[in-house]
Amino acid sequence: MSLRTKLKKVLPSISITEQEALDAGDVWLEGSIYQGKPDFDALRDVPAAKLSAEEQAFLDGPVKELLSMIDDSEIQNGVHLPDYILDFLKKERFFSLIIPKSFGGLEFSPYANSTIVATIATKSSAVAVTVMVPNSLGPGELLLHFGTKEQQDHYLPRLANGRDIPCFALTSPEAGSDAGGIPDIGVVKRGQFNGEEVLGLEITWDKRYITLAPIATVLGLAFKVVDPDGLLGGKENLGITCALIPKDHPGVELGNRHDPMGIRFYNGTTRGEKVFVPMDFIIGGQKNIGRGWQMLVSCLGAGRGISLPALGVSSSQVAFKGASEYAAVREQFGLAIGQFEGIQEKLADIAGKTYLQEAMRVLTTEGLGMGLKPSVVTAIAKYHMTEIGRNVLDSAMDIQAGKAIQNGPQNTLASGYVAQPIAITVEGANILTRNLMIFGQGVMRCHPYLQSMVESIHSEDKNADKEFNSILRKTVGYSVANSLRAFRLGVLPFTAGAKSSLPEVRAYEKAAHKLSAKLAVYADFSLLVLGGKLKQAEMLSARLGDVMSFLYAAMASIKYYEQKVASSEREQAAPYFHYATRFALQSAEEALHKFLDNFPASGTRKFMRFITMNYSMKMPKISDDLIRELATQAQMDTAFKAQITHLVNPIEGDGHYINEQAYKAKMACLDLLAKVKKALRAKTIKPGVRFAETLDNALVASVINEEEYAKLIDYNKKREKAIRVDEFDFDMNLLDDNAKPVNQLKSVVNE
């Protein structure tokens, strides 16, 4: 019995849905990371993302106008988005960011799409999600790539101008992450449509978590098709299929709403019982029966790589801007709280991770802008950027403390804090994304021979043994080369290559090569020793996925620093860059050690540790000095800080504006504040109970003049407003139309 035949009995075959997922998308930078040789040349050749004049005009015009219209506190205390917001979104074509101009759309780049969604999310998660969904996975993109000309000509102009609102229904109560388990069935039958008997599908479905479903006018639907009577002349089970069904089609149920954590975007259910639709309703027509999953996974780039990461980045930038301004303005024990090391540790972490988030956002959308659909990279972006967004928000909540937990127009964190878990559950829960998808897809897509080997093992071709042996020889050679390279870099670490022109970057580039070489060895031995069991060893494979992910993040950090930071601003940016890159490299190294510590085969574990010389943590550390340096830099009003918080656009009167005004007022009078504090220390003046009284004393003592006094008083008023929280008069005696008590919220402070 040949080795191939033995392996065929042991290894499980790849399911149709798994194979279609593997076949969809492109291999990009993650391929070189997996293979132990991060391709920094390809990284540096990626065209830099930038907005076109038209895209910038849209941000400066309709987006800015939308921000001025949004009162997120009002939205969250209401039932749904106000009609004037929805009408504006339709009028200004916010639902057509990805639709070509030939169909009346805006046809913006992935980078612009991401920037628009993220900018809106800094003001309102509910509005951002409403804009996000039609421009990510849904009818629009499916029609663009797979629709018939008639479908495109009919629907795309209507989707572009808002006459039609789309939703897409995939998730069922019985099948969420397991797309192959969809219980919704379409039976091939003949039936009546427009007074004629035609061939079509009788569909029964029950879907949930469908964003925009309550207001959708056209329903995208995923279901399985069966042909028990052989009307199509082939097999009975034809596979997952996607159709587009008007809301007013007989039998379609749309309307019931969910309540996703009180975030007021439209999310709900759709059902149908034996609803007959003609074959023309299938996206792409009858020929696309059974191609639904392939269609869906090939279009995941927008949702995974653009929209959901954009929500994570927006959370980080809001958190960083608000926390740094609050830390500079809020004083305790006579000092700005940003001078306390406990706050500095949190603030530095927020600042470094915000930089890393923006770097990953830019690089990922640059790849998508090249026309690539890198399924592993977009999974990396979705998981890590939403998780980092959650982590950063937690730290910002700690810094702002009592201010952060009081709802109201002035709270800039509350909506994002509540909404962040929503992004984490979309397009597959993050546990699934990390534990199964990133390395699970990566190992098959990025290994140069593995997918071909698996195919040859399960092949029925008469030359399959010969083909398998040829691939096996190549695989062994590849693994030996990986081991030799890792051993060389372990024994002679100075031989790692680096091509950056910036000396502060070269050490990190070398570090990435060393970690990547170890990853390649561990991945090879995992496949050799665990084989098909690696699929069930989720904690082990997740750690290898983390290594891939954090090395991708480190590459993003390097590219951003080299290409997006002006040379005149490198000194400002350096602490952000060093913290972010060290965080990514340290995280990758920790994942490697956890993988080794828990590898089940003791002998193999010891051999892997020896051949990679992996006995201790060797990556550059985040020192206390770096934390202090970054925390100080994060509280300064610099051009680079503005660059990595550019998504936050304060609108006069909103919480962002109130915080920023106090912060900028303080930055403008630091020298005057120092003069007053010096006089207090010298006991030239007495401190007042309130700071305004201290300023009065300073004026009387001629420590400051009238003009300086006015400037400090102006700052103090803005400071008091910034550290204050919203208060409300609750009248519990009002009744609604159903005689139920309601809360009448009326601000008594910040109207």
UniProtKB/TrEMBL annotation:
Domain Acyl-CoA dehydrogenase/oxidase N-terminal: 71-162
Lineage: Bacteria, Pseudomonadati, Pseudomonadota, Gammaproteobacteria, Alteromonadales
Entry's EC annotation: 1.3.8.7, 1.3.8.8
Segments forming domain Acyl-CoA dehydrogenase C-terminal bacterial-type: 444-728
Residues of the Acyl-CoA oxidase/dehydrogenase middle domain: 167-267
Enzyme class at the top of the EC tree: oxidoreductase
Protein name: Acyl-coenzyme A dehydrogenase
Family: Belongs to the acyl-CoA dehydrogenase family.
